[in-house]
Amino acid sequence: METILVLVYAEADGSLAKPAREALGAARSLQASLDGSTLVVGLVGEDVQPAANSVAGCGADRFLGVSGPAFGQSRYATDALAAESLCHEAGASLILAPGTSRWCRALPGVAHRLGGRADAHVTEISLADGAPSVARWYYRQRMEAAIRRTHRPWVMLIDPGCVAPWEGAAGQASVHALAVEPSAACLRTTVAGLQAPPADAQTIRPDAALLFVAGAGWTKTQPDGKPHAAEAADLILGFLRKTQASLGGSKSLVDLSGEGQATLPFMTHLNQIGQTGATPRHPKGLATCCHGEEPHAVGWRFINERRAVNLDPGCGWARGKADVLYVADAFAVMAKVNALLAEA
Ligand SMILES: Cc1cc2nc3c(=O)[nH]c(=O)nc-3n(C[C@H](O)[C@H](O)[C@H](O)COP(=O)(O)OP(=O)(O)OC[C@H]3O[C@@H](n4cnc5c(N)ncnc54)[C@H](O)[C@@H]3O)c2cc1C
């Protein structure tokens, strides 16, 4: 008989973020498929009641909370202490949590303290021969493995964006508060503040419907014999502003920007898509001025619908890497697209 604990933390405004509701959705499905299992929601935060209330209708058997000012911050020592206490109190055998940076840092250590096991980057939880099985990808998303464990407790960190978030009625949740007192040693680290770029400078948007990828071609000499980096920047940023698409880059382009050349200043290594870059999940992707080399296209593994604009009809996209290739000048295409978007 499994006891499923879904571990979530409240955001600074008291809400539960989408990855937390995704983990709850996964936990609900797992509970429904495992006969006789119980579901416990464990919450951590400065004040967990509003977060618990927002998922009051999820059908959990129990709500447990560890709260107080010390637990509002993302800090290994207090996060691990809170999670460990919740796992003990719940008697959890299966522990599901969103694979955010905060939990990915704390929960493998908690699994160790509990004598359990942890799997990160879980993309799916299913049932095989009546027992839970998780899927995760290896070798830069080229191979998928299905993993089963008999060892308990088993911590599963679920990658954001893979599971439908739990949606349902809010209400009044009855939260059993655990009395957890962090020692002085647990509080040595403090979060001094958060630094984030202004909203319009933030070009990486994991939840966007479209991934727009810019390649090195935007900075190359164009048919008039000159590069047009400033025009390229205007076209790309104009498109992003209008569509709220997420911005990706090829390695060649982000390397150029990193070397301080007059290229596209907003493009950093964080934008890089590919074998040595990110593997984002978006319903659609549009690659522009990028050749579609294999190490780059590896990062397109989870993009469902792929289109590309390239001057070269023999580029990588034309060889099975894209659904549609427009053999055209991306400067002209994007100027026209932006004009059409401005009319819409
Ligand atoms: C081990 C390894 C790991 C790697 N990992 C990654 C990775 O994670 N991500 C990654 O991106 N790369 C990676 N690479 C590099 C990769 O192989 C390519 O070199 C890189 O992706 C090329 O970038 P690009 O297509 O932007 O540039 P280029 O190859 O220079 O292509 C530019 C393209 O722009 C087109 N173009 C120029 N002007 C226009 C225009 N006006 N309109 C339309 N098209 C135009 C050209 O036809 C050309 O196809 C890796 C390589 C190795 C060896």
Pick out its properties.
7-stranded parallel sheet, Rossmann fold, 15 strands, 344 residues, elongated, 5-stranded parallel sheet, 8 helices, alpha/beta, 2 domains, binds flavin-adenine dinucleotide
Q: What would you say this structure looks like, in words?
A:
With 344 residues, this protein is an alpha/beta fold. The protein folds into two domains: 3-187, HUPs (Rossmann fold), CATH 3.40.50; 199-343, Rossmann fold (3-Layer(aba) Sandwich). The chain contains eight helices and 15 strands. It has helices at residues 18-33, 49-54, 76-90, 101-113, 229-243, 251-258, 294-297, 330-343, and strands at 3-9, 38-45, 62-67, 94-98, 117-122, 124-128, 131-138, 143-147, 154-158, 175-177, 210-214, 246-249, 284-288, 305-310, 324-327. The strands form three sheets. It has a seven-stranded parallel β-sheet with strand order 5-9-4-1-2-3-10, with helices on both faces. Strand 13, helix 7 (294-297) and strand 14 form a beta-alpha-beta unit. Helix 3 (76-90) packs across helix 4 (101-113) and helix 5 packs parallel to helix 8 (330-343). It is elongated and about 70 Å long. The mean pLDDT is 94. It binds flavin-adenine dinucleotide. Flavin-adenine dinucleotide (FAD) is lined by residues 215-217, 220, 222, 250-253, 272-277, 289-291, 293, 295-296, 299, 309-312, 315, 329-331.
What is the count of β-strands? 15
Q: Which percent bin holds the helix content?
A: 25-40%
Q: What is the name of the CATH architecture of the largest domain?
A: 3-Layer(aba) Sandwich
Strand order of the largest sheet: 5-9-4-1-2-3-10
- Counted by DSSP, the helix tally is 8
The tally of structural domains comes to 2
Estimate the strand proportion: 15-25%
Structural class, from secondary structure content?
Answer: alpha/beta
Shape: elongated
Mind describing the biggest β-sheet? 7 strands, parallel
Order of helices and strands: EHEHEHEHEEEEEEEHEHEHEEH
Return the CATH class of the largest domain.
Alpha Beta
Would you identify the CATH H-level superfamily of the largest domain? HUPs
The CATH topology name of the largest domain reads Rossmann fold
